[in-house]
Amino acid sequence: MLRRTTGLSLLTLLVITGLAGTINDNSISKKERKYALTLMKETREDAVQSIKGLSAAQLEYQAAAGKWSIKECMFHIAGAEKLLWTVFESTMKAPANPEKRSDIKVTDEQVVKMVENRSAKFQAPEPIQPKNTGFKTLDEALADFKSNRLLHIRYMKTSTEDLRNHVAQLPVGWIDCYQLYLFIAAHSNRHTQQINEVKTSPGYPVN
After folding, report:
1. What's the total number of domains in the chain?
2. Residue 148 resides in a domain
3. At what angle do helices 177-199 and 138-158 cross, to 10 degrees?
4. Between vectors from CA 114 to CA 111 and to CA 117, what angle results, nearest 5°?
5. Of the candidates 42, 40, 38, the residue with the CA atom closest to the CA atom of residue 81
6. Tens digits of residue pLDDT in 100-156
7. Rounded to a whole number, what is the largest CA-CA distance in the chain?
8. Which domain holds residue 73?
9. Would you say residue 181 lies in a domain?
């Protein structure tokens, strides 16, 4: 009887502290969690590797007037990572709105493909244009991106929040917070592609 009472007490404590959250976590499946984590990790690595070992001339090179340099791309990646996460957090803190799920017109895979599709061009919002991000150096931007991305990866590893029933309206339409998480990961890939495009420009410095 004592063992049973102790066991129930321990289970109650775990539920209260959130350590047993997975027992009642019906928000996303293990497969969905794994997919989101893999995307976050792989796109982080791709972004970091895309600027590794580049010279100052290569980082500052602009393919044409008004085009972003590689350094500016990284400023944008880091700034957007932070801004998009504030949207994520504010949506999760707001009351769940499952009634808006009917307004979602895209699948998870379509969200990722849409964001990563470089054939469709968009004007970056003023706060996350490179000159407005507040970063002074590439090292500063890269460190900020890495630290924020690590927090986002840890969140997905442990969170039991209801990501599917918190829905946000973005310029691209309505998406749930799981899809917004994928959006954030895919966004860095979009601009890693841009970095790689700069490297293929005819005037790109060889060193």
Report:
1. 1
2. yes
3. 150
4. 145
5. 40
6. 999 999 999 999 999 999 998 888 899 999 999 999 999 999 999 999 999 999 999
7. 78
8. 29-199
9. yes
